[in-house]
Amino acid sequence: MIDFHCHLDLYPEPRAVVRECASRGIYALAVTTTPSAWEGTSELVSEANRIRVALGLHPELARERRSELQLFEQLLPRTRYVGEIGLDGSPEMRSFWTDQKYVFDRILAACRSAGGKIMTIHSRRAVTEVLDSLESHLGAGTPILHWYSGGSRELARAVDLGCWFSVGPAMLSGEKGRKLAARMPRDRVLTETDGPFAMVDGHTAFPWDVDFALATLGDVWEVDKDSVQKTIDDNLRRLTQSWQHRSWI
Ligand code: MN
Prior knowledge:
43% of the residues lie in helices and 16% in strands.
């Protein structure tokens, strides 16, 4: 199983979750919400060879942690994965929109200067603005829109811009999410949980809850779960190879 967007460092017992991932053979991308969390998270997973760490600055923290942009740029050469980054257009986040936009654009510019990164991107209620920023920073890398919740016209625009998508149990538990997933190109879909923020069946999502996403994608695509898993594995392999990364899976 592959959890391409989870916050491993934010579980109450992160080491236990990392151990469980190892024993289940799960591949995970541990995203961070601040540049200052990157070193500690890297240390947390240093013995887990199926886990990678992404360097992020979450849009919700754009004002509070804008001062960490310098640290972000310092650390960037040490990782191929960036996230969680993006924009959030929810009413309570709009109050610091200027900071969000500044941080996101500066990160995209840094990724472009670095030759491109694999980026996991938050776009809640701001898909148009996220796509506008990506369009003005072509060459920043491969964007993976995580937990996409926009409309279908924007989804088509995202596909044209080369975006990938990561979908999880919380998104796929609703009719809207399943309809969107059906419109995503199958060769650009990965699975995620967004744990511990997301919930599955009333409990905090753990990386192994990706299993539910595999089953639901099987229903949406009308194929069995094993075939979904194979597609997702192939996708991750192709994604990393396209950046000439050492084989991850
Ligand atoms: Mn997240």
